[in-house]
Design a protein that fits this description.
single chain; alpha/beta; two-stranded antiparallel sheet; 4 helices
Length: about 210
């Protein structure tokens, strides 16, 4: 059962638990599907639940295919800073953009789509990758009086990590359940993300 009123300041933020990020998907994270049962249990225990959903238009500028001569996982400079070029993934309306079929989406109070602007990527649940264009999540949480956030999902070193760091930057208490996340670990990105989160005051558990 969901947590009672004494936990009314707490929310579980489930980051991008989508088909394309799970084994067999276009940008599969190793073991991404293995966390679904634990995430479902955490949702059942949570007072409030937010699901984020990568939602890219076809031809998004973060896709390697949008940059002739470039390969997936290369890094290029965009007007907003460094950008990893990804395989096309989570394209709006496709099966790969859907949530993992076993995820309990009925427990969501809010489903927040991000990455829908064609020219800028969006790792964080709070901001586009320019770190200034908001998604609207901050206002939603503040309007509900929520101050304590637990992050789970995919991937630890990108969308989960950026979301947790932004949560701290905005003044929220932030916790990451590492046992309910999986990482891409691109060129040491996991160790960097963990160090950055610790330095920012994010609590790492599991």
């Amino acid at each position: 059962m969901p947590a009672g009123p004494e936990h009314a300041t707490e929310a579980l933020i489930v980051i991008d638990l989508q088909v394309d990020f799970c084994p067999g998907g276009a940008l599969a994270v190793t073991g991404g599907d293995a966390i679904v049962p634990l995430v479902n249990r955490l949702m059942d225990e949570a007072f409030a639940v937010v699901l984020t959903q990568d939602w890219h238009p076809a031809g998004h500028l973060s896709f390697a295919a949008s940059h002739p001569g470039r390969d997936a996982f290369e890094t290029v400079e965009m007007p907003y800073g460094p950008q990893v070029l990804w395989p096309a993934h989570c394209v709006q309306g496709t099966g790969g953009a859907g949530f993992h079929q076993a995820l309990r989406t009925d427990r969501a109070d809010l489903i927040l789509r991000k990455g829908f602007r064609p020219g800028i990527d969006s790792y964080s649940a709070f901001f586009e990758n320019d770190r200034s264009t908001p998604t609207g999540l901050e206002g939603y949480l503040r309007n509900r009086g929520i101050t304590e956030l637990t992050f789970v999902g995919l991937a630890t070193d990108f969308c989960v990590g950026w979301s947790a760091l932004d949560a701290r930057r905005l003044g929220f208490d932030a916790r990451v359940r590492l046992d309910a996340c999986r990482a891409i670990d691109l060129d040491g990105s996991l160790d960097t993300a963990l160090a950055d989160m610790r330095a920012a005051g994010v609590t790492l558990e599991g």
